[in-house]
Amino acid sequence: DSGVTQTPKHLITATGQRVTLRCSPRSGDLSVYWYQQSLDQGLQFLIQYYNGEERAKGNILERFSAQQFPDLHSELNLSSLELGDSALYFCASSVGQGENEKLFFGSGTQLSVL
Amino acid sequence: GENVEQHPSTLSVQEGDSAVIKCTYSDSASNYFPWYKQELGKGPQLIIDIRSNVGEKKDQRIAVTLNKTAKHFSLHITETQPEDSAVYFCAANTGGFKTIFGAGTRLFVKA
């Protein structure tokens, strides 16, 4: 168990809908990262937060947004969902800001858009 | 930005044999290279990492090598066991806030 908690584990929704994925980092970790893993694809970096502030952005669509709350948990919001958004979404955390740091991953949220 | 290429995409070995996975990176500023193992239904888990001031690092049956000049780094697993079967990801970090992953290698260890 990595100590990173993601909910829900599975999410099934329809095109055009909006969903929220939740992540609780390991105790003491200040950074949260979001990654997308499509079928047979690698891990695509979406966005990173450190202590409530956005630190880095990857290939995150404008329809997607995220935030990190004062208690350090994070939420990834996906709106106007399309079939291609179906993927496994991972959250990871690290102690510091992310420079050369080990990432601890949650078990992921499997999103299916029908 | 950084780009990490990983080969092979699939690797099948007999139990007890060695497995080697190779990665190349594009950004010469990258200085931290972790390797992650992802088992079915789970998130990736760090198994070993290497920093740019080190050429080789070993941890029991696994080892990583780094060639900064060629921008290559590799994962070596010796005496493979069925429980080594998983997807392995290499990654690179430039000291910034992004860890960029390779596409992954699916390793099958046949008993």
Structural write-up:
The complex is a heterodimer of chains A (114) and B (111). By secondary structure, chain A is an all-beta fold. Helices cover 0% and strands 51% of the residues of chain A. Chain A has strands at residues 5-7, 10-13, 19-24, 31-37, 43-50, 53-57, 64-68, 74-78, 87-94, 104-105, 109-113. In chain A, the strands form two sheets. In chain A, strands 2, 4, 5, 6, 9, 10 and 11 form a seven-stranded mixed sheet that branches. The N and C termini of chain A lie far apart (31 Å). With 111 residues, chain B is mainly β. In chain B, a hairpin with a 2-residue loop joins strand 6 and strand 7. Chain B starts with a strand and ends with a strand. Chains A and B meet through strand 4, strand 5 and strand 10 of A and strand 4, strand 5 and strand 10 of B.
Q: How many angstroms does the end-to-end distance of chain B come to?
A: 41 Å
N-to-C order of helices and strands of chain A:
EEEEEEEEEEE
Uncertain runs of chain A? none
Number of helices of chain A: 0
Give the SSE string of chain B: EEEEEEEEEEE
Q: How would you name the oligomeric state of the polypeptide chains in this document?
A: heterodimer
Give the amount of beta strand of chain A, in percent.
Answer: over 45%
End-to-end distance of chain A: 31 Å
Q: What's the overall average pLDDT of chain A, rounded?
A: 93
Biggest β-sheet description of chain A: 7 strands, mixed
Task: Using the CA coordinates, give the radius of gyration of chain A.
Answer: 13 Å
Count of individual helical segments of chain B:
0
Determine the most extensive contact between two protein chains. A-B, 28 and 25 residues
List the helices and strands and how they pair.
The complex is a heterodimer of chains A (114) and B (111).
Chain A: E1 5-7, E2 10-13, E3 19-24, E4 31-37, E5 43-50, E6 53-57, E7 64-68, E8 74-78, E9 87-94, E10 104-105, E11 109-113
Parallel strand pairs in A: 2-11
Antiparallel strand pairs in A: 1-3, 3-8, 4-5, 4-9, 5-6, 7-8, 9-10, 9-11
Chain B: E1 4-7, E2 10-14, E3 19-25, E4 32-38, E5 45-51, E6 56-59, E7 62-67, E8 72-77, E9 86-93, E10 99-101, E11 105-110
